[in-house]
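Hi F.,

I've been meaning to write this up properly since the lab meeting, where we talked about keeping a consistent format for the predictions we share between groups. The idea is simple: the sequence comes first, exactly as it goes in, then the structure tokens exactly as they come out, then a line or two of notes. No screenshots and no reformatting. I'm using this chain as the first example so we have something concrete to point to.
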Amino acid sequence: MPEMQTETWKPLVAEYQRPNAARAAWQVVNTIGLYVVLWVAMALALQVSWWLAIPLAILAGAVLVRVFIIFHDCGHGSFFASRTANNWLGFVTGVLTFTPYAQWRWQHAVHHGTTGNLDRRGVGDVWTLTVSEYRQAPWWKRVAYRVTRNPILLLGIAPLLMFLFENRLPSSQVGSKERRSVWWTNLCLVGMAFGMSVLLGFLPYLILQLTVLAVAGGIGVWLFYSQHQFEGAYWQRGDDWSYTDAALKGSAFLKLPRVLQWFTGNIGYHHIHHLSSRIPNYNLQACHESNALFETVAPMTVFQSIRAFGLKLWDEANGRLVSFRHLRRSRRRKCA
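Output, unedited:
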């Protein structure tokens, strides 16, 4: 796509950065309201059969992804015009998604400011090594890297570990406000778990909640991973790094079917979101379609997003992500 300067795109997104109270309120109803309804339905289904309750839990997990998108927009201050409203709804949705609002907001802001920057990796992103870093790493670090980049761990185990354990502890890098958000979220989660256990029974609640979190976490990691780790992704060092290029070249446009687009809160338009995080999710598609410059970003299909899990290392020499298989082949060619 053609190079785009900051002064070029800022006027193009300005009108889409304005929150719409009516659309935001309706999204709260059709998302958080639906999520609550599904929990009521699960409670009633338990009186009949687990075969009814588990499918409802899977559906609730998909809806929780959309709840997280609202939480995410609140963290950017884009969902409502009111900062207070964003912070209150952000905290509530943070409890529903098992994520401390203020701490996550800080980490995610770092992610937006460092996406695609090889010199500023490590906060709010997926662990990424270059080919040379991987080759020079000790054996235990290479094994750890392979394990953490394994799709089974990424989609199945890592999300539960993050939601249930990592999010329960404050980061050593954050301030007192962010630390308090962790403890307040934990306190609310204890209260929620106690209340739901009284209503449903501890084991039924545990099974249903873990199912919901596993589904939501798996979808969430798939989205986040594939939208920054894909064929043609952008990584640069130091002064060669550009915020605009990192947004439009390092954040994928994941073109999803309408149903999946609804559940994922339009986050497939990730290039627009990274260009301006002040655009609420309900304006992302309209912004993308407003100018031909944005539509020059090549869309990524669901199949291509799945294939992206085979890309593991950044090859600085060739400026692209490569697989472990590619690494082995290049090593054999050098030895031949």
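Notes:
Residues 50-76 form the longest helix (27 residues).
The CA atoms of residues 266 and 281 lie 6 Å apart.

If this format works for you, I'll send the rest the same way.

G.
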